[in-house]
């Protein structure tokens, strides 16, 4: 019985860790412009690996030397797909164990099943990312769904970790923190929109943008959802004013999230049961501010941009862990394994 619980716990934590890694690697795929390294799905020019597609890749690279298809980009894209497929198999294994051993584990399998549905939807958006030629709305949805899957698996994993019992009055932080997580979700979506529209360098100065606090912007063009990459809904090339609008909104909404979550985390760190997640939120908020500014001043260096994406993932998991712990406020300490159902 204990062996089953231990196997399940290890499987959940390994899957959670792999999901976090895959999100970071997904940012690397996007930022290296490797999303169309293999412009078909699920293989690479009909082959399982880029090795079988060398001739096609070489031909595409010759036709467009600075285009999206090269052998290195093909490998980056395919490794991302391989790891994503492996992640899906791990979640299937979690669901299998959650259902088969639900009495031993003392857990309802609902959350694990929802995670499986989420990874299937995420896989579909991964395919559409390629077939729709990096359409910004699809790529942004793929990013947001990836972080949603991370949140679900963090929830799943957090239930398996012991923590200090929280007093009943700690539950007053649940609604404010849930609202803060909602603000973070909006900011992550805006950040994905910046990245998928290549608007990170639309404003090269700070704190002003193009020398003005409110520069000339095209919100309608920048936030039109149904359009191709680099285009307006009319088919014309997207304007600098539209890119500026995308960047400006993400930049300024960041201060709303920074202030709200910063004050809330500062208050929550007084509670021993959520001190760790609260302090992590504070550290990551500072890191996000630093990497965001560094991206502007150093013109979007790859490592910093990937770390900025990783910071968003870290904030998501820290907020979810805190919420899971606050949900137990007033109850007994959560032990490593819940007792089996009678």
Automatic annotation (TrEMBL):
GO MF assignments: metal ion binding; oxidoreductase activity
Q: Name one Pfam family in it.
A: COX15-CtaA
How does the record say this protein sits in the membrane?
Multi-pass membrane protein
| Pathway connected to this protein | Porphyrin-containing compound metabolism
Q: Does the keyword NAD apply?
A: no
Looking at the UniProt entry, the stretches that span the membrane are: 12-31, 79-99, 111-131, 137-158, 170-190, 248-266, 278-300, 306-327
One GO cellular component, as annotated: membrane
Could you list this entry's UniProt keywords, alphabetically sorted: Cell membrane, Disulfide bond, Heme biosynthesis, Iron, Membrane, Metal-binding, Oxidoreductase, Transmembrane, Transmembrane helix
Tell me, which GO biological process terms does this entry list? Answer: heme A biosynthetic process
Its localization reads: Membrane
Main subcellular location: membrane
Q: What is this protein called?
A: Heme A synthase
């Amino acid at each position: 019985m204990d062996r089953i619980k231990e196997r399940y716990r290890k499987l959940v934590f390994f899957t959670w860790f792999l999901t976090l890694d895959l999100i970071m690697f997904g940012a690397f795929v996007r930022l290296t412009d490797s999303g169309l390294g293999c412009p078909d799905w699920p293989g690479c020019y009909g082959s399982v690996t880029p090795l079988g597609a060398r001739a096609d890749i070489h031909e595409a690279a010759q036709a467009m030397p600075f285009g999206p298809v090269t052998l290195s980009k093909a490998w980056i894209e395919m490794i991302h797909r391989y790891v994503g497929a492996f992640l899906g198999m791990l979640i299937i294994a979690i669901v299998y164990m959650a259902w088969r051993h639900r009495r031993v584990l003392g857990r309802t399998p609902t959350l694990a099943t929802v995670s499986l549905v989420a990874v299937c939807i995420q896989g579909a958006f991964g395919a559409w990312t390629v077939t729709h030629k990096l359409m910004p709305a699809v790529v942004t949805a793929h990013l947001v769904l990836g972080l949603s899957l991370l949140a679900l698996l963090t929830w799943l994993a957090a239930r398996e970790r012991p923590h200090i019992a929280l007093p009943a009055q700690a539950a007053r932080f649940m609604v404010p923190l849930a609202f803060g997580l909602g603000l973070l979700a909006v900011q992550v979506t805006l950040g994905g929109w910046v990245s998928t529209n290549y608007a990170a360098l639309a404003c090269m100065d700070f704190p002003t943008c193009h020398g003005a606090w409110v520069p000339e912007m095209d919100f309608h063009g920048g936030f039109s959802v149904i359009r191709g990459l680099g285009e307006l809904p009319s088919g014309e090339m997207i304007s600098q004013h539209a890119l500026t609008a995308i960047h400006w909104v993400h930049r300024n909404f960041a201060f709303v999230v920074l202030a709200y979550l910063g004050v809330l985390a500062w208050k929550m760190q007084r509670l021993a049961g959520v001190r760790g997640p609260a302090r992590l939120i504070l550290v990551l908020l500072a890191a996000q501010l630093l990497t965001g500014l560094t991206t502007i001043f150093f013109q979007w260096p790859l490592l910093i941009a990937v770390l900025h994406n990783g910071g968003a993932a870290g904030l998501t998991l820290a907020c979810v862990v805190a919420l899971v712990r606050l949900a137990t406020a007033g109850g007994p300490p959560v032990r490593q394994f819940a007792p089996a159902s009678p």
